[in-house]
Amino acid sequence: MAQRIEMSGVHAYYGSTLAVEDVSLTIQERHITAFIGPSGCGKTTVLRTMNRMHELVLGARVEGKILLDDEDLYDPGVDPVAVRRTIGMVFQKPNPFPTMTVYQNVAAGLRLNGARRGRGSDELVEQALRRANLWDEVKDRLHRPGAGLSGGQQQRLCIARAIAVEPEVLLMDEPCSALDPISTLAIEDLMLELKERFTIVIVTHNMAQAARVSQTTAFFTIAGAGQPGRLVEMGPTATIFSTPSQKTTEDYVTGRFG
Amino acid sequence: MRGDRAFRLVVTAAGIVVLMILAAITIFLIVEAVPALRADRANFLTERHWSPDENPPRFGIAALALGTLMTSVLALLIALPVSVGTALFLTQYAPRRVSVPLGYLVDLLAAVPSVVYGLWGLIVLVPHLIPLSAFLADHLGFIPVFASNQTYGRSVFAASLVLSVMVLPIIAAISREVFLTTPVEQVEAAYALGATRWEMIRTAVLPHGRPGLVSAAVLGLGRALGETIAVALVLSANFDISVHILTPGGNTIAANIANAFGDAGTIGRGALIASGLVLFAFTLVVNLLARAVIVRHRNTLGAPR
Protein backbone atom coordinates (compact mmCIF):
# COMPACT_ATOMS: atom_id res chain seq x y z
CA MET A 1 0.00 0.00 0.00
CA ALA A 2 1.31 3.41 -0.96
CA GLN A 3 1.15 5.56 2.14
CA ARG A 4 4.32 7.51 2.45
CA ILE A 5 4.36 11.15 1.35
CA GLU A 6 7.52 12.99 0.37
CA MET A 7 7.49 16.70 -0.35
CA SER A 8 10.51 18.43 -1.78
CA GLY A 9 10.93 22.11 -2.51
CA VAL A 10 7.21 22.86 -2.29
CA HIS A 11 6.13 26.46 -2.78
CA ALA A 12 2.42 27.28 -2.48
CA TYR A 13 0.90 30.45 -3.92
CA TYR A 14 -2.41 32.27 -3.66
CA GLY A 15 -2.40 34.32 -6.84
CA SER A 16 0.93 36.16 -6.76
CA THR A 17 1.30 35.82 -2.97
CA LEU A 18 3.78 33.21 -1.82
CA ALA A 19 2.07 31.56 1.17
CA VAL A 20 4.50 28.75 1.87
CA GLU A 21 8.15 28.68 0.93
CA ASP A 22 10.36 25.71 0.17
CA VAL A 23 8.92 22.94 2.30
CA SER A 24 10.60 19.54 2.17
CA LEU A 25 9.47 16.79 4.48
CA THR A 26 8.55 13.13 4.69
CA ILE A 27 5.34 11.75 6.18
CA GLN A 28 5.86 8.24 7.55
CA GLU A 29 3.32 5.55 6.73
CA ARG A 30 0.90 4.46 9.50
CA HIS A 31 2.14 7.23 11.67
CA ILE A 32 0.49 10.31 13.05
CA THR A 33 2.33 13.42 12.00
CA ALA A 34 1.32 16.72 13.61
CA PHE A 35 1.79 20.16 12.04
CA ILE A 36 2.05 22.89 14.66
CA GLY A 37 2.83 26.59 14.47
CA PRO A 38 1.30 30.04 14.92
CA SER A 39 -1.69 31.20 12.86
CA GLY A 40 -0.90 32.05 9.26
CA CYS A 41 2.27 29.95 9.19
CA GLY A 42 0.96 27.92 6.28
CA LYS A 43 0.46 24.55 7.95
CA THR A 44 -3.09 24.18 6.62
CA THR A 45 -1.91 25.27 3.18
CA VAL A 46 0.79 22.60 3.21
CA LEU A 47 -1.82 20.04 4.28
CA ARG A 48 -4.09 21.05 1.42
CA THR A 49 -1.34 20.71 -1.17
CA MET A 50 -1.11 17.01 -0.31
CA ASN A 51 -4.52 16.09 -1.70
CA ARG A 52 -4.66 18.84 -4.28
CA MET A 53 -7.37 20.76 -2.45
CA HIS A 54 -5.16 23.85 -2.45
CA GLU A 55 -5.68 24.45 -6.15
CA LEU A 56 -9.47 24.67 -5.73
CA VAL A 57 -9.02 28.23 -4.48
CA LEU A 58 -9.16 30.63 -7.42
CA GLY A 59 -5.62 31.48 -8.53
CA ALA A 60 -3.91 29.07 -6.12
CA ARG A 61 -1.04 26.94 -7.37
CA VAL A 62 1.78 24.73 -6.18
CA GLU A 63 5.41 24.40 -7.25
CA GLY A 64 7.72 21.58 -6.27
CA LYS A 65 7.35 17.85 -5.94
CA ILE A 66 4.97 15.79 -3.80
CA LEU A 67 5.33 12.04 -4.06
CA LEU A 68 2.92 9.44 -2.72
CA ASP A 69 5.37 6.57 -2.61
CA ASP A 70 6.97 7.03 -6.00
CA GLU A 71 4.05 8.63 -7.80
CA ASP A 72 4.21 12.37 -8.42
CA LEU A 73 0.84 13.76 -7.31
CA TYR A 74 1.30 16.82 -9.51
CA ASP A 75 2.24 14.95 -12.67
CA PRO A 76 0.14 16.34 -15.55
CA GLY A 77 -1.23 12.84 -16.13
CA VAL A 78 -2.58 12.56 -12.58
CA ASP A 79 -6.26 13.29 -12.04
CA PRO A 80 -6.75 15.39 -8.87
CA VAL A 81 -10.05 13.54 -8.33
CA ALA A 82 -8.12 10.27 -8.03
CA VAL A 83 -5.64 11.87 -5.62
CA ARG A 84 -8.47 13.00 -3.35
CA ARG A 85 -9.94 9.48 -3.37
CA THR A 86 -6.62 8.15 -2.13
CA ILE A 87 -5.94 10.95 0.35
CA GLY A 88 -9.04 11.77 2.39
CA MET A 89 -9.66 14.88 4.44
CA VAL A 90 -11.47 15.96 7.60
CA PHE A 91 -12.13 19.64 8.13
CA GLN A 92 -11.99 22.12 10.97
CA LYS A 93 -15.75 22.56 11.14
CA PRO A 94 -17.79 19.34 11.02
CA ASN A 95 -19.43 19.45 7.60
CA PRO A 96 -21.86 16.57 7.08
CA PHE A 97 -24.09 17.09 4.05
CA PRO A 98 -27.10 18.82 5.62
CA THR A 99 -29.77 17.30 3.38
CA MET A 100 -28.53 13.75 3.89
CA THR A 101 -29.20 11.20 6.60
CA VAL A 102 -26.44 9.64 8.71
CA TYR A 103 -26.42 6.64 6.38
CA GLN A 104 -26.40 8.74 3.21
CA ASN A 105 -23.53 10.83 4.53
CA VAL A 106 -21.34 7.80 5.06
CA ALA A 107 -22.40 6.32 1.73
CA ALA A 108 -21.87 9.61 -0.14
CA GLY A 109 -18.28 8.85 -1.04
CA LEU A 110 -19.06 5.25 -1.94
CA ARG A 111 -21.76 6.43 -4.29
CA LEU A 112 -19.42 8.94 -5.91
CA ASN A 113 -16.86 6.27 -6.54
CA GLY A 114 -19.30 4.54 -8.77
CA ALA A 115 -22.16 2.11 -8.65
CA ARG A 116 -19.64 -0.72 -8.68
CA ARG A 117 -19.72 -0.61 -4.90
CA GLY A 118 -23.48 -0.27 -4.81
CA ARG A 119 -23.96 -3.77 -3.45
CA GLY A 120 -22.92 -4.45 0.08
CA SER A 121 -22.90 -0.77 0.94
CA ASP A 122 -24.88 -1.53 4.11
CA GLU A 123 -21.90 -3.47 5.43
CA LEU A 124 -19.45 -0.80 4.30
CA VAL A 125 -21.46 1.92 6.04
CA GLU A 126 -21.60 -0.10 9.25
CA GLN A 127 -17.89 -0.86 9.06
CA ALA A 128 -16.98 2.79 8.55
CA LEU A 129 -19.21 3.88 11.44
CA ARG A 130 -17.71 1.21 13.70
CA ARG A 131 -14.19 2.29 12.80
CA ALA A 132 -15.19 5.88 13.61
CA ASN A 133 -16.48 4.73 17.03
CA LEU A 134 -19.91 6.07 16.15
CA TRP A 135 -21.91 2.95 15.33
CA ASP A 136 -23.37 2.36 18.79
CA GLU A 137 -24.52 5.96 19.05
CA VAL A 138 -26.23 6.16 15.65
CA LYS A 139 -27.30 2.61 14.78
CA ASP A 140 -30.91 3.42 15.72
CA ARG A 141 -30.99 6.70 13.83
CA LEU A 142 -29.21 5.86 10.59
CA HIS A 143 -32.02 7.37 8.58
CA ARG A 144 -32.28 10.62 10.50
CA PRO A 145 -30.52 13.80 9.30
CA GLY A 146 -26.78 13.75 9.90
CA ALA A 147 -26.97 17.40 10.89
CA GLY A 148 -29.06 16.38 13.91
CA LEU A 149 -26.09 14.83 15.69
CA SER A 150 -23.98 16.68 18.27
CA GLY A 151 -20.84 18.49 17.11
CA GLY A 152 -18.51 15.72 18.21
CA GLN A 153 -20.70 13.05 16.63
CA GLN A 154 -20.86 15.08 13.42
CA GLN A 155 -17.09 15.20 13.28
CA ARG A 156 -16.86 11.42 13.78
CA LEU A 157 -19.54 11.09 11.07
CA CYS A 158 -17.26 13.09 8.78
CA ILE A 159 -14.37 10.79 9.68
CA ALA A 160 -16.57 7.78 8.91
CA ARG A 161 -17.48 9.37 5.58
CA ALA A 162 -13.81 9.95 4.78
CA ILE A 163 -12.64 6.43 5.71
CA ALA A 164 -15.59 4.67 4.08
CA VAL A 165 -13.93 5.10 0.70
CA GLU A 166 -10.78 3.37 2.04
CA PRO A 167 -8.24 6.14 1.51
CA GLU A 168 -4.60 5.49 2.28
CA VAL A 169 -3.88 8.78 3.95
CA LEU A 170 -6.16 10.88 6.15
CA LEU A 171 -5.53 14.61 6.42
CA MET A 172 -7.12 16.33 9.41
CA ASP A 173 -7.30 20.11 9.53
CA GLU A 174 -7.77 21.12 13.19
CA PRO A 175 -10.45 18.45 13.56
CA CYS A 176 -11.12 19.23 17.23
CA SER A 177 -10.98 23.00 17.30
CA ALA A 178 -14.79 23.28 17.25
CA LEU A 179 -15.33 20.53 19.83
CA ASP A 180 -15.56 20.27 23.61
CA PRO A 181 -12.87 18.37 25.59
CA ILE A 182 -14.86 15.12 25.83
CA SER A 183 -15.52 15.00 22.09
CA THR A 184 -11.90 15.95 21.49
CA LEU A 185 -10.77 12.98 23.57
CA ALA A 186 -13.06 10.67 21.58
CA ILE A 187 -11.50 11.88 18.33
CA GLU A 188 -7.97 11.49 19.69
CA ASP A 189 -8.66 7.91 20.80
CA LEU A 190 -10.09 7.26 17.38
CA MET A 191 -6.98 8.64 15.67
CA LEU A 192 -4.76 6.27 17.62
CA GLU A 193 -6.91 3.36 16.42
CA LEU A 194 -7.01 4.61 12.84
CA LYS A 195 -3.26 4.89 12.58
CA GLU A 196 -3.13 1.08 12.45
CA ARG A 197 -4.69 1.34 8.98
CA PHE A 198 -4.09 4.85 7.73
CA THR A 199 -1.32 7.40 7.56
CA ILE A 200 -2.57 10.47 9.39
CA VAL A 201 -1.48 14.09 9.18
CA ILE A 202 -3.09 16.47 11.65
CA VAL A 203 -2.90 20.25 11.79
CA THR A 204 -3.48 21.48 15.32
CA HIS A 205 -3.24 24.62 17.39
CA ASN A 206 -3.37 22.53 20.52
CA MET A 207 0.19 21.59 21.44
CA ALA A 208 -0.95 19.19 24.13
CA GLN A 209 -2.93 17.40 21.47
CA ALA A 210 0.10 17.14 19.21
CA ALA A 211 2.10 15.75 22.11
CA ARG A 212 -0.65 13.22 22.97
CA VAL A 213 -1.38 11.75 19.58
CA SER A 214 1.54 12.24 17.21
CA GLN A 215 4.79 10.38 16.78
CA THR A 216 6.34 13.02 14.56
CA THR A 217 5.88 16.79 14.78
CA ALA A 218 6.64 19.46 12.22
CA PHE A 219 6.93 23.07 13.38
CA PHE A 220 6.09 25.87 10.93
CA THR A 221 6.40 29.59 11.44
CA ILE A 222 6.43 32.94 9.67
CA ALA A 223 9.06 35.63 10.01
CA GLY A 224 6.37 38.33 10.10
CA ALA A 225 3.12 39.52 8.55
CA GLY A 226 3.16 39.22 4.77
CA GLN A 227 6.09 36.80 4.85
CA PRO A 228 5.70 33.25 3.55
CA GLY A 229 5.40 30.42 6.05
CA ARG A 230 8.20 27.87 6.23
CA LEU A 231 9.08 24.64 7.95
CA VAL A 232 11.47 25.22 10.86
CA GLU A 233 12.13 21.66 11.88
CA MET A 234 10.60 18.24 12.04
CA GLY A 235 11.39 15.28 14.25
CA PRO A 236 10.11 12.78 16.80
CA THR A 237 7.39 14.46 18.86
CA ALA A 238 9.22 13.79 22.13
CA THR A 239 12.33 15.52 20.83
CA ILE A 240 10.47 18.52 19.41
CA PHE A 241 8.74 19.11 22.73
CA SER A 242 11.83 18.56 24.93
CA THR A 243 15.07 19.28 23.08
CA PRO A 244 14.36 20.89 19.73
CA SER A 245 17.35 21.93 17.71
CA GLN A 246 16.03 25.39 16.84
CA LYS A 247 15.56 28.28 19.25
CA THR A 248 12.21 29.37 17.65
CA THR A 249 10.79 25.88 18.12
CA GLU A 250 11.78 25.87 21.75
CA ASP A 251 10.27 29.33 22.28
CA TYR A 252 7.03 28.19 20.66
CA VAL A 253 6.58 24.85 22.42
CA THR A 254 7.43 26.37 25.79
CA GLY A 255 4.83 29.03 25.22
CA ARG A 256 7.16 32.00 24.91
CA PHE A 257 5.42 33.11 21.68
CA GLY A 258 2.61 32.12 19.34
CA MET B 1 -38.20 58.10 20.79
CA ARG B 2 -40.44 60.37 18.81
CA GLY B 3 -38.73 59.50 15.56
CA ASP B 4 -39.09 55.88 16.51
CA ARG B 5 -42.85 56.17 16.95
CA ALA B 6 -43.28 58.11 13.75
CA PHE B 7 -41.31 55.52 11.82
CA ARG B 8 -43.32 52.74 13.35
CA LEU B 9 -46.52 54.50 12.30
CA VAL B 10 -45.30 54.93 8.71
CA VAL B 11 -44.29 51.30 8.22
CA THR B 12 -47.48 50.03 9.87
CA ALA B 13 -49.50 52.21 7.52
CA ALA B 14 -47.57 50.84 4.54
CA GLY B 15 -48.35 47.30 5.65
CA ILE B 16 -52.04 48.07 6.08
CA VAL B 17 -52.26 49.74 2.67
CA VAL B 18 -50.97 46.58 0.99
CA LEU B 19 -53.60 44.48 2.75
CA MET B 20 -56.32 46.98 1.86
CA ILE B 21 -55.37 46.97 -1.81
CA LEU B 22 -55.48 43.17 -1.83
CA ALA B 23 -58.88 43.20 -0.12
CA ALA B 24 -60.19 45.87 -2.49
CA ILE B 25 -59.16 43.85 -5.53
CA THR B 26 -60.77 40.70 -4.19
CA ILE B 27 -64.01 42.52 -3.36
CA PHE B 28 -64.04 44.20 -6.77
CA LEU B 29 -63.59 40.85 -8.53
CA ILE B 30 -66.36 39.19 -6.52
CA VAL B 31 -68.85 42.06 -6.79
CA GLU B 32 -68.42 42.33 -10.55
CA ALA B 33 -68.42 38.59 -11.13
CA VAL B 34 -71.42 37.51 -9.10
CA PRO B 35 -74.21 39.05 -11.28
CA ALA B 36 -72.70 37.49 -14.41
CA LEU B 37 -72.36 34.11 -12.70
CA ARG B 38 -76.05 34.37 -11.65
CA ALA B 39 -77.06 35.01 -15.24
CA ASP B 40 -75.01 32.08 -16.57
CA ARG B 41 -77.28 29.35 -18.02
CA ALA B 42 -74.43 26.85 -18.13
CA ASN B 43 -72.25 25.33 -15.42
CA PHE B 44 -69.40 27.81 -15.05
CA LEU B 45 -66.91 25.14 -14.03
CA THR B 46 -67.62 22.57 -16.74
CA GLU B 47 -68.82 24.62 -19.72
CA ARG B 48 -66.14 25.18 -22.34
CA HIS B 49 -67.80 27.76 -24.59
CA TRP B 50 -67.70 31.46 -23.92
CA SER B 51 -70.87 33.26 -25.08
CA PRO B 52 -71.81 35.48 -22.18
CA ASP B 53 -73.46 38.20 -24.25
CA GLU B 54 -75.85 35.94 -26.07
CA ASN B 55 -79.35 35.18 -24.96
CA PRO B 56 -79.37 33.14 -22.85
CA PRO B 57 -75.77 33.71 -21.73
CA ARG B 58 -73.71 30.51 -21.64
CA PHE B 59 -70.09 30.51 -20.60
CA GLY B 60 -67.66 28.43 -18.58
CA ILE B 61 -64.07 28.25 -17.52
CA ALA B 62 -63.25 24.65 -18.50
CA ALA B 63 -61.41 25.22 -21.79
CA LEU B 64 -59.73 28.40 -20.58
CA ALA B 65 -58.53 26.86 -17.34
CA LEU B 66 -57.14 23.80 -19.11
CA GLY B 67 -55.44 25.96 -21.74
CA THR B 68 -53.93 28.17 -19.07
CA LEU B 69 -52.57 25.23 -17.11
CA MET B 70 -51.30 23.42 -20.20
CA THR B 71 -49.38 26.36 -21.64
CA SER B 72 -47.92 27.33 -18.27
CA VAL B 73 -46.88 23.86 -17.15
CA LEU B 74 -45.41 23.09 -20.55
CA ALA B 75 -43.54 26.39 -20.47
CA LEU B 76 -42.17 25.52 -17.06
CA LEU B 77 -41.12 22.04 -18.21
CA ILE B 78 -39.18 23.60 -21.08
CA ALA B 79 -37.73 26.53 -19.14
CA LEU B 80 -36.69 24.74 -15.94
CA PRO B 81 -33.88 22.54 -17.29
CA VAL B 82 -32.60 25.34 -19.53
CA SER B 83 -32.53 27.93 -16.77
CA VAL B 84 -31.04 25.61 -14.13
CA GLY B 85 -28.44 24.62 -16.71
CA THR B 86 -27.75 28.28 -17.41
CA ALA B 87 -27.40 29.03 -13.70
CA LEU B 88 -25.05 26.06 -13.19
CA PHE B 89 -22.95 27.15 -16.15
CA LEU B 90 -22.75 30.72 -14.86
CA THR B 91 -21.87 29.76 -11.30
CA GLN B 92 -19.84 26.56 -11.65
CA TYR B 93 -18.28 26.35 -15.08
CA ALA B 94 -17.90 29.74 -16.78
CA PRO B 95 -14.78 31.78 -16.02
CA ARG B 96 -15.56 35.08 -14.28
CA ARG B 97 -15.01 37.28 -17.31
CA VAL B 98 -17.66 35.25 -19.16
CA SER B 99 -20.13 34.67 -16.34
CA VAL B 100 -20.55 38.30 -15.29
CA PRO B 101 -21.55 39.76 -18.69
CA LEU B 102 -23.54 36.66 -19.56
CA GLY B 103 -25.42 36.98 -16.27
CA TYR B 104 -26.36 40.56 -17.17
CA LEU B 105 -27.59 39.40 -20.57
CA VAL B 106 -29.82 36.75 -19.00
CA ASP B 107 -31.22 39.38 -16.62
CA LEU B 108 -31.83 41.60 -19.62
CA LEU B 109 -34.15 38.95 -21.09
CA ALA B 110 -36.51 39.77 -18.21
CA ALA B 111 -36.59 43.41 -19.25
CA VAL B 112 -37.93 42.75 -22.75
CA PRO B 113 -41.62 43.82 -22.86
CA SER B 114 -43.99 40.92 -23.27
CA VAL B 115 -45.58 42.41 -26.37
CA VAL B 116 -42.18 42.16 -28.03
CA TYR B 117 -41.99 38.49 -27.11
CA GLY B 118 -45.48 38.06 -28.55
CA LEU B 119 -44.58 39.72 -31.85
CA TRP B 120 -41.33 37.78 -32.06
CA GLY B 121 -43.22 34.56 -31.37
CA LEU B 122 -45.82 35.28 -34.02
CA ILE B 123 -43.53 36.56 -36.76
CA VAL B 124 -40.30 34.61 -36.20
CA LEU B 125 -40.93 31.60 -34.03
CA VAL B 126 -44.20 30.29 -35.42
CA PRO B 127 -43.00 29.94 -39.05
CA HIS B 128 -39.78 28.31 -37.93
CA LEU B 129 -41.67 25.98 -35.66
CA ILE B 130 -43.72 24.44 -38.44
CA PRO B 131 -41.04 21.94 -39.59
CA LEU B 132 -40.30 20.93 -36.00
CA SER B 133 -43.97 20.49 -35.20
CA ALA B 134 -44.45 18.48 -38.36
CA PHE B 135 -41.50 16.29 -37.43
CA LEU B 136 -42.85 15.72 -33.93
CA ALA B 137 -46.32 14.91 -35.24
CA ASP B 138 -44.96 12.53 -37.88
CA HIS B 139 -42.63 10.62 -35.60
CA LEU B 140 -44.22 10.91 -32.17
CA GLY B 141 -47.81 11.25 -33.33
CA PHE B 142 -48.70 7.89 -31.79
CA ILE B 143 -48.42 9.63 -28.41
CA PRO B 144 -51.73 11.48 -28.02
CA VAL B 145 -50.05 14.70 -26.90
CA PHE B 146 -48.22 15.01 -30.21
CA ALA B 147 -51.06 13.80 -32.44
CA SER B 148 -51.96 16.31 -35.13
CA ASN B 149 -53.45 16.19 -38.59
CA GLN B 150 -53.77 19.90 -39.26
CA THR B 151 -51.40 22.61 -40.31
CA TYR B 152 -49.11 23.35 -37.46
CA GLY B 153 -48.25 26.79 -36.22
CA ARG B 154 -50.00 28.99 -33.71
CA SER B 155 -50.34 26.08 -31.34
CA VAL B 156 -50.22 25.55 -27.59
CA PHE B 157 -46.66 24.36 -28.18
CA ALA B 158 -45.70 27.69 -29.79
CA ALA B 159 -47.33 29.68 -26.98
CA SER B 160 -45.54 27.55 -24.40
CA LEU B 161 -42.20 28.11 -26.09
CA VAL B 162 -42.67 31.87 -26.03
CA LEU B 163 -43.74 31.69 -22.39
CA SER B 164 -40.73 29.54 -21.54
CA VAL B 165 -38.37 32.18 -22.94
CA MET B 166 -40.17 34.75 -20.80
CA VAL B 167 -39.91 32.81 -17.53
CA LEU B 168 -36.36 31.62 -18.18
CA PRO B 169 -34.61 34.76 -16.86
CA ILE B 170 -36.57 34.70 -13.60
CA ILE B 171 -35.78 31.08 -12.88
CA ALA B 172 -32.17 31.45 -14.04
CA ALA B 173 -31.58 34.55 -11.90
CA ILE B 174 -32.97 33.00 -8.71
CA SER B 175 -31.20 29.68 -9.28
CA ARG B 176 -27.95 31.53 -9.84
CA GLU B 177 -28.29 33.45 -6.58
CA VAL B 178 -29.15 30.24 -4.71
CA PHE B 179 -26.25 28.29 -6.20
CA LEU B 180 -23.84 31.08 -5.29
CA THR B 181 -24.77 30.70 -1.62
CA THR B 182 -23.68 27.04 -1.45
CA PRO B 183 -21.44 26.86 1.65
CA VAL B 184 -17.77 26.36 0.83
CA GLU B 185 -17.61 23.60 3.47
CA GLN B 186 -20.15 21.55 1.51
CA VAL B 187 -18.29 22.05 -1.74
CA GLU B 188 -14.97 21.09 -0.15
CA ALA B 189 -16.52 18.09 1.61
CA ALA B 190 -17.63 16.75 -1.75
CA TYR B 191 -14.32 17.43 -3.48
CA ALA B 192 -12.36 15.88 -0.61
CA LEU B 193 -14.29 12.63 -1.11
CA GLY B 194 -13.02 12.54 -4.66
CA ALA B 195 -16.01 14.04 -6.42
CA THR B 196 -15.73 15.26 -9.96
CA ARG B 197 -17.21 18.68 -10.61
CA TRP B 198 -20.56 17.25 -11.70
CA GLU B 199 -20.62 14.93 -8.68
CA MET B 200 -19.83 17.89 -6.44
CA ILE B 201 -22.77 19.77 -7.98
CA ARG B 202 -25.04 16.78 -7.35
CA THR B 203 -23.91 16.29 -3.75
CA ALA B 204 -23.50 19.88 -2.59
CA VAL B 205 -24.92 22.53 -4.93
CA LEU B 206 -28.23 20.99 -6.02
CA PRO B 207 -29.38 19.72 -2.58
CA HIS B 208 -28.53 23.10 -1.09
CA GLY B 209 -30.43 24.88 -3.86
CA ARG B 210 -33.53 22.68 -3.96
CA PRO B 211 -35.85 24.89 -1.86
CA GLY B 212 -34.71 27.90 -3.88
CA LEU B 213 -35.36 26.06 -7.12
CA VAL B 214 -38.91 25.31 -6.00
CA SER B 215 -39.53 29.00 -5.30
CA ALA B 216 -37.96 29.91 -8.63
CA ALA B 217 -40.15 27.45 -10.49
CA VAL B 218 -43.26 28.76 -8.77
CA LEU B 219 -42.44 32.36 -9.55
CA GLY B 220 -41.90 31.32 -13.16
CA LEU B 221 -45.19 29.41 -13.20
CA GLY B 222 -46.94 32.44 -11.73
CA ARG B 223 -45.61 34.64 -14.48
CA ALA B 224 -46.62 32.11 -17.15
CA LEU B 225 -50.13 31.72 -15.72
CA GLY B 226 -50.78 35.44 -15.81
CA GLU B 227 -49.06 36.29 -19.08
CA THR B 228 -51.57 37.92 -21.41
CA ILE B 229 -50.43 39.67 -24.49
CA ALA B 230 -47.76 37.28 -25.74
CA VAL B 231 -50.18 34.37 -25.61
CA ALA B 232 -52.98 36.42 -27.13
CA LEU B 233 -50.72 37.22 -30.09
CA VAL B 234 -49.25 33.78 -30.66
CA LEU B 235 -52.12 31.41 -29.94
CA SER B 236 -54.87 31.04 -32.48
CA ALA B 237 -57.68 30.85 -29.99
CA ASN B 238 -60.68 28.58 -29.81
CA PHE B 239 -62.56 26.87 -27.02
CA ASP B 240 -61.75 23.26 -27.76
CA ILE B 241 -60.66 21.01 -24.96
CA SER B 242 -57.80 18.93 -26.28
CA VAL B 243 -54.42 17.70 -25.17
CA HIS B 244 -52.95 17.94 -28.67
CA ILE B 245 -50.31 20.57 -28.11
CA LEU B 246 -49.27 20.80 -31.77
CA THR B 247 -52.66 21.74 -33.22
CA PRO B 248 -53.75 25.35 -33.32
CA GLY B 249 -56.35 26.24 -30.75
CA GLY B 250 -56.91 26.40 -27.05
CA ASN B 251 -56.96 29.61 -25.10
CA THR B 252 -55.88 30.96 -21.76
CA ILE B 253 -57.77 32.99 -19.18
CA ALA B 254 -55.53 36.02 -19.46
CA ALA B 255 -55.39 36.02 -23.26
CA ASN B 256 -59.16 35.61 -23.45
CA ILE B 257 -59.66 38.63 -21.22
CA ALA B 258 -57.38 40.70 -23.45
CA ASN B 259 -59.09 39.51 -26.63
CA ALA B 260 -62.69 39.72 -25.50
CA PHE B 261 -62.86 42.63 -23.10
CA GLY B 262 -63.22 45.35 -25.73
CA ASP B 263 -66.36 43.88 -27.29
CA ALA B 264 -67.90 42.58 -24.08
CA GLY B 265 -71.34 43.68 -22.85
CA THR B 266 -72.36 43.96 -19.21
CA ILE B 267 -72.61 40.24 -18.57
CA GLY B 268 -69.57 39.65 -20.75
CA ARG B 269 -67.47 41.92 -18.61
CA GLY B 270 -68.69 40.26 -15.45
CA ALA B 271 -67.96 36.86 -16.95
CA LEU B 272 -64.41 37.88 -17.84
CA ILE B 273 -63.90 39.20 -14.33
CA ALA B 274 -65.15 35.88 -12.98
CA SER B 275 -62.50 34.16 -15.08
CA GLY B 276 -59.95 36.56 -13.62
CA LEU B 277 -61.05 35.44 -10.18
CA VAL B 278 -60.30 31.85 -11.17
CA LEU B 279 -56.82 32.88 -12.35
CA PHE B 280 -56.31 34.67 -9.05
CA ALA B 281 -57.25 31.46 -7.24
CA PHE B 282 -54.83 29.45 -9.39
CA THR B 283 -51.85 31.60 -8.55
CA LEU B 284 -52.86 31.62 -4.89
CA VAL B 285 -53.00 27.81 -4.77
CA VAL B 286 -49.70 27.47 -6.62
CA ASN B 287 -48.00 29.82 -4.19
CA LEU B 288 -49.45 28.06 -1.15
CA LEU B 289 -48.33 24.68 -2.48
CA ALA B 290 -44.84 25.97 -3.05
CA ARG B 291 -44.72 27.42 0.43
CA ALA B 292 -45.82 24.08 1.86
CA VAL B 293 -43.10 22.27 -0.09
CA ILE B 294 -40.43 24.68 1.12
CA VAL B 295 -41.55 24.59 4.74
CA ARG B 296 -41.70 20.81 4.80
CA HIS B 297 -38.27 20.64 3.23
CA ARG B 298 -36.92 23.01 5.86
CA ASN B 299 -38.42 21.05 8.73
CA THR B 300 -37.30 17.57 7.82
CA LEU B 301 -33.98 18.28 6.19
CA GLY B 302 -31.40 20.93 5.84
CA ALA B 303 -31.97 22.61 9.17
CA PRO B 304 -28.75 22.89 11.10
CA ARG B 305 -29.20 20.84 14.25
Rg of chain B, rounded, reads 23 Å
- Output the CATH topology of the domain at 5-94 and 168-253 in chain A: Rossmann fold
Q: How many structural domains does the protein architecture of chain B include?
A: 1
- Please trace the helix and strand order of chain A, writing H or E for each element: EEEHEEHEHHHHEHEHEEHH
The CATH homologous superfamily of chain B corresponds to MetI-like
Strand content of chain A: 25-35%
CATH superfamily of the domain at 5-94 and 168-253 in chain A: P-loop containing nucleotide triphosphate hydrolases
Q: Measure the end-to-end span of chain A.
A: 38 Å
**Secondary-structure element series of chain B:** HEEHHHHHHHHH
Poorly predicted residue ranges of chain A: none
Question: Biggest protein-protein interface?
Answer: A-B, 28 and 24 residues
**Radius of gyration from the alpha-carbon trace of chain A, in angstroms:** 18 Å
Query: Globular, elongated, flat, extended or rod-shaped: what is the shape of chain B?
Result: globular
| Helix segment tally of chain B | 10
The CATH topology of chain B is what?
Answer: MetI-like fold
What is the CATH class designation of chain B? Answer: Mainly Alpha
Shape of chain A: globular
Structural class of chain A: alpha/beta
